[in-house]
Amino acid sequence: MTTEPEIFERLKPLLGEVLGVAPERVRMESALIGDLGAESIDLLDLTFRIEEHFKVAIQADEIERAARQRVSGELYDTNGLFTEEALAVIRESMPELAPEKMVTGLRRSHLPALLNVAFFVRLIARKLAAAEERTSRA
What we know:
Blueprint: H1 4-19, H2 40-54, H3 62-70, H4 73-76, E1 77-78, E2 81-82, H5 84-93, H6 117-137
Antiparallel strand pairs: 1-2
């Protein structure tokens, strides 16, 4: 099983390629947009490279899917703002995102700005673990 530190070390060069940052600048808590200068197109490029490098599939709505399954329609968001119920589920399912930024009034469109390196490391770890489990059952 691949560990989070191993995934982190393998992810740093991909972040360097996409964002032009030196590997020593990359920390688990680094926000891709705020700290490392990513733009939305960079997140797409990074996702593509992660899929190729780690042989995992990442869906565009990956971040919100788990929360949407647990919080229905009108309880999820109102006029593009997350409800308290949705924020609680997202905080619980993605503890690596800065909890101090998961506050009332957070817009769904602002969620990408909260993504940090730890989010991607743990997402990759979950995907790899699920793939290993499927393989071991086969």
